[in-house]
């Protein structure tokens, strides 16, 4: 193997390793997102099992989250990328229990959330925090 061939092989190897190393610094989809976290409570108490959808005004897919036992959540764009697409979006909240398709929250918290300014947020590269207390006197089964 001559020195030119070794040098070109070495340069190609360096380029390939550098390209793959650079991928680790980017979002897995290449779509910029901002980290969105928060706490959801129900009548002042941490709400476990609340499903959240962050629906961007742009024609992008929504990000999803579900609250833990402390009411905390972190939005996920896809399984390999956290966050919500940058720009304005609407947060929608739903509560399902077991295998039931019934959403125990009224439409004002989900399909009609766009009519309530409290559910509008603007996601930036710095992210956003969306905390919300669901004030509701209807019956919601325990998780």
Could you characterize what this model shows?
The chain is an alpha+beta fold and 143 residues long. The protein folds into two domains: 1-30; 33-134, Immunoglobulins (Immunoglobulin-like). Helix content is 15%, strand content 35%. It is built from one helix and 13 strands, in the order H-E-E-E-E-E-E-E-E-E-E-E-E-E. Strands 2, 3, 6, 12 and 13 form a five-stranded mixed β-sheet that branches. The radius of gyration is 21 Å and the shape is globular. The termini are far apart.
Note the main attributes of this structure:
four-stranded antiparallel β-sheet; alpha+beta; 15% helix; Immunoglobulin-like; disordered N terminus
Write the layout of secondary structure elements.
Elements: H1 3-23, E1 33-34, E2 36-42, E3 45-46, E4 50-56, E5 63-66, E6 72-74, E7 76-78, E8 81-82, E9 84-85, E10 87-95, E11 120-123, E12 128-129, E13 132-134
Parallel strand pairs: 2-12, 2-13
Antiparallel strand pairs: 1-9, 2-3, 2-6, 4-5, 4-10, 7-8, 10-11
Q: Which range best describes the helical content: under 10%, 10-25%, 25-40%, 40-55%, 55-70% or over 70%?
A: 10-25%
CA radius of gyration is 21 Å
Q: Overall 3D geometry?
A: globular
CATH structural class of the largest domain: Mainly Beta
The total domain count is: 2
Beta percentage is 25-35%
| Rounded average pLDDT | 85
Total helical elements = 1
Give a quick precis of the structure:
The chain contains one helix and 13 strands, in the order αβββββββββββββ.
């Amino acid at each position: 193997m001559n020195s030119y061939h070794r040098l070109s092989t070495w340069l190609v190897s360096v380029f390939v390793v550098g390209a793959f190393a650079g991928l680790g610094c980017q979002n897995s989809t290449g779509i910029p997102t901002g980290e969105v976290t928060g706490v959801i409570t129900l009548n002042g108490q941490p709400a476990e099992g609340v499903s959240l959808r962050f629906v961007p005004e742009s024609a992008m897919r929504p990000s999803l989250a579900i609250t833990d036992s402390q009411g905390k959540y972190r939005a996920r764009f896809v399984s390999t990328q956290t966050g919500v697409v940058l720009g304005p979006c609407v947060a929608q909240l739903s509560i399902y229990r077991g295998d039931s398709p019934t959403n125990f929250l009224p439409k004002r918290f989900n399909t009609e959330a766009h009519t309530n300014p409290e559910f509008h947020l603007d996601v930036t590269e710095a992210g956003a925090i969306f905390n919300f207390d669901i004030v509701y006197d209807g019956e919601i089964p325990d998780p």
